[in-house]
Amino acid sequence: MPAPGNAPAIIDSSLDAARQALVDLLDRLTQGIEGSTGTAISGLVIHRILKPYSPHHSVQTPAFGLIAQGSKTVLMGEQTYTYDALNYLLTSVDVPVCGKISAASPQKPYLGLRLDLELDVIAGLIHEMDEADRSVDERSEICRAVNVHRLDRPLLDAVQRLLHLLDTPADIPVLAPMIKREIFYRLLGSSHRLRQIALHDSQTQRIAKAIRLLREQYDQPLSIEAIARGVHMSSSSLHHHFKAITSMSPLQFQKQLRLQEARRLLFVDDLDIALAARRVGYESASQFSREYSRFCGNAPSRDKRRWLGEEERV
């Protein structure tokens, strides 16, 4: 039997070589492109970032995110997640996050990918794996909306095969669904949290439904009681599980949705501050400005000037 101290070195060496192959592959596929780019494979986005960027607010949807080179920090509510090469991020429900690329340069760009989770495929896999009837304890288990995991070789191999399909577009319609299914299977094997996403009547499923209701009604006055009834939970149970999964209360969650949409309205649709505030549900422009400043670090007018590159010199 090999000495315990020798095994990790062999595994690490193998993974490091495979990671370098992934870096080379993504570097080639993203040559001449900067930013995040959709691909011919449905749900697959590849990234090439040449410099660190300031924190970016967005709503993260269920996805598998993998870094080949560089590092990234993601903030969700009160939780901070930092991951780098050979780690992956798994997001189980729609959740507002703040992301920041912390290591990238023209000489060594941030390279990575994102693959949307197909919950119907995952549910089918669970059924085939005889996991449909989980224990009561597992159905009621509370899992964070965002988690970081260590990548293993079988999953990395499947990811590389999926990316190689971009070189042979004619193969994508037949082979991409098969390889994505394998990736989801590998994720199920390495993370019981993924089962919570697709298990019917799990706490994660109920909170996912509550999040959908909040996203549909983010500009309306919040009624915890109505949302709780809609997902068949008590108000106290909804609040408890919502905070446990998203690191935010439903009110904090709604506030982030409102402020992210307001920022989009200001920057993209060029609305004035008062109209943007009303559009997302604020009756008081002064309250909106205070909360926007806390959320974004600048008052709305100053934030917009910075975004347009017109920040006045001090």
From TrEMBL:
Keywords for the protein's UniProt record, in alphabetical order: Transcription, Transcription regulation
InterPro entries tied to this protein: Homeodomain-like_sf, HTH_AraC, Tscrpt_reg_HTH_AraC_N
All copies of domain HTH araC/xylS-type, residue ranges: 208-306
Protein name: AraC family transcriptional regulator
Superkingdom as given in the UniProt entry: Bacteria
Entries under PROSITE patterns matching the protein: HTH_ARAC_FAMILY_2
Organism ancestry: Bacteria, Pseudomonadati, Pseudomonadota, Betaproteobacteria, Rhodocyclales
Pfam family, one: HTH_18
MF GO annotations: DNA-binding transcription factor activity; sequence-specific DNA binding
